[in-house]
Amino acid sequence: MSARLTALAAAVACLAAGCATSAPGPGSADGAPRLRVEVVAEIPHDTAAFTQGLELADGVLYEGTGQEGRSELRATDPVTGAVRSRAALPPDLFGEGITVVGDRIWQLTWQEGVAIERDRASLAERRRVRYEGEGWGLCHDVAGGRLVMSDGSDVLTFRDPDTFAELGDVRVRADSGPVSKLNELECVDGTVYANVWQTDQIVRVDPETGEVTGVADLSGLLPPQQRVNTDVLNGIAAVPGTDEFLVTGKLWPKLFRVRFATDSD
Question: From which residue to which does the signal peptide run (predicted)?
């Protein structure tokens, strides 16, 4: 069991016993427009991949995986799911979100406060940069000239894509209040899509205001019989030149190519 799952189990036990806990539950995106999920295709996915980050660039699907002693960065075939190359993290680092920036890839770690800059072609490590707090999701907001990072709260932090220095932040809100547990991120045309941990929701966020402008419910995407021995929905990658995304979950046997549509589409 991963450290995060162990922490979750402890929190559940604590609640059952009636003790106090400071861990916030998943935020609600009530009141936001609903996005209908249309499945376009299904693609094989390695069931050993504890997916933390997913990004498609120039025909290569990059995937960051987690768990202590098993974290990697992978370059995979987006059509077959086959792994083309991989780079393992040191066993003391728990891998998290990733994003492509030109010829580089940034990879977060969970609680170690380390961002790893890698060479995109070889996946080799170039350098490490320190940051405060936890690392969960990461994406490159090309339109805004910045990185967007999540830490499991309702805050998205903006960072310099070259130095990783903090540039500011925004709190994510829906009509019902804060939306927390923001996890894997994808930046698309000035908009941020975020998995909400422990739910089957992906929220669409305006990074300038923090407003949730849409929510997609992916419940049932993976049939119940295939959810055995899997973990939560996590992983979203825009398909360049289309309005489609690749989505998956931790230890899932499939990637799904989907389109998010509104009732007016």
Answer: 1-22
